Amino acid sequence: MTAASTAGRNWAGNITFRAARRHRPSTIDELRRIVADSERIRAVGTAHSFNRIADSTGDLVSVADLPPTVEIDEAARTVTVSAAMRYGDLARRLQAAGYALHNLGSLPHISVAGAVATGTHGSGDRNGNLATAVRALRMVTAEGDLVTLRQGDDGFEGAVVALGLLGVVVDVTLAIEPAYEVRQFVFERLPWSRLVESFEEIFSDAYSTSLFTEWTGPVVDQVWRKKRTDEADPPTGEWFGAVPATRALHPIRSMPADNCTAQLGEPGPWHERLPHFRLEFTPSAGDELQTEFLVPREHAVDALTAVDGIRDLVAPQLQISEIRSIAADELWLSPSYRRETIGIHFTWVPDTAAVLPVVEEVQRVLAPFAPRPHWGKIFTTGLDDVAARYERWDDFERLAAGYDPAGKLRSQYDAWQSG
């Protein structure tokens, strides 16, 4: 058995992995031996995490070299896909077969298993995060056993968003639906006062809505509204005081719009409109750090007002901030577990020393609203405090102990927050 090199750093470059050994098995049997023989091990996907959630001081394993799988079950309306496959690659295969997923994240470059394990999400009042599409998963547990969990099995709701703590996932089965088309409209300069007055109407008026702000003034810089073509037509003129963009835009004004999915109402396949960024281009700014806090929807306006109150601190370290909605779900460690949610996302400049004090201040002003941090992004809240915001945390701990009694998958469990 030979350890092959995986990437030595994460996607953003702010984390250098500390693993003593790195593995890229080409078969499930080889993966099982690696996991069984290891004392400490973590799985790494596309490394689109900004903290040490995917790091290990022992072994680091990538499943990217396992045979790629896309198996559509038309009767069950599901697709089984290899864990390392990127959403963008899966989406193209589904579209060619006439199928779609219910939603996609901002960028299609992330792996299916990594996004699911961390509760990563897209946007939309009626759209659960990406993990809510999971109907089964197959993983190699700490002792090297190959285990399948299906929806309805005991512990399934705890095993989907599991942070890599139950085993190394090898494939995931997702719900699919008939392919559909989407039109994307961008509006500029939404008055902050109108957002506060009409928050519910603004977010409920499209299949997916994202607000982008630099936290520099009394307006939201851009609103990206994605409408399915089988929904009512969107407005063509002024909308809640915002004006339609007359050219394609990038959320970060210094970046080229060519990197982004088609706008100006041009209809197109779901997978070419729901993400903000195109698969063949570098997403977002590329050179960046990220933080996200997810708050209960009923506290959204107060939470946003609290962040606006420290805009002079936030703006100098910020590239862009995105605000979007996510539907409630039943997955134990999902940031949207049993609460309708608003995500407040920050794309920071790539300067950890300058960004961390600002993150701490954002956490302070959001603390009254029980924020749950995105598991794969930068936060400094202690794990005990985060755990207290999840009603099923103790149940998850028991579930994890059952699959990994020696804790070999928990090697960085208490050191993720700031990276």
UniProtKB/TrEMBL annotation:
Keywords: Oxidoreductase. Residues 15-179 form the FAD-binding PCMH-type domain. It comes from the Bacteria. GO terms for molecular function: D-arabinono-1,4-lactone oxidase activity; FAD binding; L-gulono-1,4-lactone dehydrogenase activity. Pfam families: ALO (PF04030), FAD_binding_4 (PF01565). One of its GO terms (cellular component) is membrane. The keyword rRNA processing does not apply. InterPro entries: ALO_C (IPR007173), FAD-bd_PCMH (IPR016166), FAD-bd_PCMH-like_sf (IPR036318), FAD-bd_PCMH_sub1 (IPR016167), FAD-bd_PCMH_sub2 (IPR016169), FAD_lactone_oxidase-like (IPR010031), Oxid_FAD_bind_N (IPR006094), Vanillyl_alc_oxidase_C-sub2 (IPR016171). This is Putative xylitol oxidase. It comes from Virgisporangium ochraceum.
